[in-house]
What does this fold into?
Amino acid sequence: MAGPAGTSHGYARPAHERSAVIDLEAIRHNVRRLAAAAEPAKVMAVVKADAYGHGAVPVARAALEAGASWLGVAHISEALALRAAGIEAPLLAWLHTPESNFGAAVAAGVDIGCSGWELEQIVAAAREQERPARVHLKVDTGLGRNGATVEVWDRLVGDAVEYQDQGLLRVVGIFSHLAVADEPERPETDDQLAAFREVLAIAEDAGVDPEVRHLANTPATLSRPDTHFDLVRAGLGIYGLSPFEGQTSAELGLRPAMTLRTVVSHCKDVHSGQGVSYGFNYHTAGESTLGLIPLGYADGVPRVATGGPVRVEGITYPVVGRIAMDQMVIDLGPLDVSRGGHSVLGAEAVLFGDGADGGPTADDWARAAGTNNYEIVTRISPRVPRTYINESPLSGAPGEKPATGATAPETPAP
It folds into this structure.
């Protein structure tokens, strides 16, 4: 009978029982691909939500190395963490509450998105810090989330210009967000683009001379050059995932950067009719071998994604039975482990990766869960260590000794 990992079958013992392995060269490749599509516009790499689960600081550094000019996050707290890591690139945070720390943002040179209500708090922070705030005015061109409505836009612009004349702020940018750019055939993107051009004209007539005008997200970067203006905000694409139904990452020239993997933690023969996991929603059709995969919904795997793929020794198996908090089960077929058959105990189990070898992808798990690939990678929990490959010698934090060689060993996330 085979032994555990690292013994009779020679499986290399991994650094972690389970990990999300992030290929930083894939991040750099994707940024270069998006930069080429956006040219002459510049690229803002969106690293909100811990870089969609990939690790904000390592991804931000890799994106800047590859040519991104800006970084974008949702919350000021995310921006401050990047500044604390020594990242000094232009940085925009755009989603706030009345409790947001505008003073810290101004002090750290973080650009602040402003939909209207925030303006007075931003100005108060600028007075307190005795330095002008850097502001991007946001207009709602149809998405219906934050951003000033077109009806109040001229008033917001007028107030901002007045504060700019007083030296309390600088209107660095004007921006909006597209609702359906991932469905290129829909006409609403044309409507939003027309509205954006109109509000830009209003701002220019009022004396605003923004450094950057930005509207395009990843799908618009790849499919709508008329939306690029001065800057595109690329999120999903820098992680190598496709925003389009029916188009793969490879077809878009993108490389998925995250591989979610673990090892088979238990392997046993069972009789026909064996129930599997809570609720007994699955029973084996015959004598079979069950493999236990030590990842579950506490690790960010969707509980509803029964049937999601797991690749072991070059074969992809669907998850059977209900996904539990810490584990799930795959049906390996009749391996006869108890009678000396080949065991996969300790073998690597990959839930998703770049798919280059025909293995499972985040898109496969999204289909199993009835969601999108954004959610699959973003929801991987902090309980799963992030490890990094292809780190640049230049990407260490200030004071760190640079790695030697082009590829650094896997290291835990900071």
Notes: Residues 1-12, 397-414 have pLDDT under 50 and may be disordered. Residues 188-205 form the longest helix (18 residues). The radius of gyration is 24 Å.
